[in-house]
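Entry type: protein chain
Record version: 2
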Amino acid sequence: MILDDPLIAPSASLPFSIDAPPTAAYIHIPFCRRRCYYCDFAVSIVGDRPPLSQSGQQQYGAIAEYVDVLCQEIRHTPNVGQPLQTVFFGGGTPSLLTLAQLDRILTTLDQHFGIASEAERSIEVDPDAVDADKIAGYAALGMNRVSLGAQAFQLEVLQACGRTHTPDDIRRTVAHLHQAGINNVSLDLISGLPHQTADLWQASLEQAIALDPTHLSIYDLTIEPETAFGRWYEAGETPLPSDQATAEFYDGARQQLTAAGFRHYEISNYGRSGYECQHNLVYWHNAAYYGFGMGAASYTHRQRYVRPRTRSAYFAWVKAMIQGGYRLEVPSDTPHDVFLDTVMVGLRLAEGLNLGAIAHYFGANYAQRLRQILRPYQAQGWVWMAESSDDVHHLGLTDPDGFLFSNVMLSTVFQQFEPAEP
């Protein structure tokens, strides 16, 4: 049943809470052997051949110093929440950490915040930056989810985007993960890469599915101006696939992955039942989370702050924070800002937005106005609107068309939304 903008009452049963204390922590490990041609993340390049420490183990002095400062930041961050339910090591290349360094960070988090025994513990891994022993070490430390940066299964495509691993490295790493008992494995793939054809994209999807992951993240290449690709290419120009081709890649991935039993639960993400990324769901529900490390963002008490993107500036920031020179918080976002953020991330989810929750947090006028702005797109088949059995109204983007044109609709919402006075 589709309703014509009834008065949307605040829901007593909320699917999420944007005001609850954070129970998620993101840890940014910024180091990479080299920068991929599409990357504009806050990273530090350490080269392909690290020196050996006195113990004979591979060790970068820069990484060791960074871990020291990172742990200081964690220890001096106010604990305003319950034990952590998700911990996510991202980068960069977190698999460049030694097991001892990873253990130290986990121990610091556990001592300061507590990590729930059933917590989702994720780490991003490059296929050529781990071996069987290191993966066994991850399992021993309680890491139970690995996100593997596969990107493609053709050597020529990988080399064209600056990746150093091979398709065999991907297969070998997945086998090591399963042998170690880490079965919650996510594979990252990128569509729209240079020289990537429809046949090559389909082959990458088929080979990814054959490895039996529990989750796949499918990203469309974005040309950022400060990257190598940004200097070499303009979007849509040879050797990049056309916009029409990348749209077909997107829909082809949806068809192949859903046919293989994966649920398309977010614009770029597919998971088998029960294997949705719990950490990322925190972001998409606009709930609170901690962030630690160079360039990392945090969101607590409806306040966002981002750390400096260079190591020297980040180190100075942590030192000043410890000495009381910096406040962790920035001025609170207005309710209108928080609302727009909630819409922007919530519409990424296949489940859409619970308008009863929107009314609860922001007022019924916000939910009503959102429906009015998006209603024209319903006629185009880009938006669905419905009422659930418990009288909570929902709206979301259709798959694939709504997801493909999500930026168009979000731009309209940001430009036109003027909430009425409560």
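Comment: The domain at 24-284 is CATH 3.20.20.70 (TIM Barrel).
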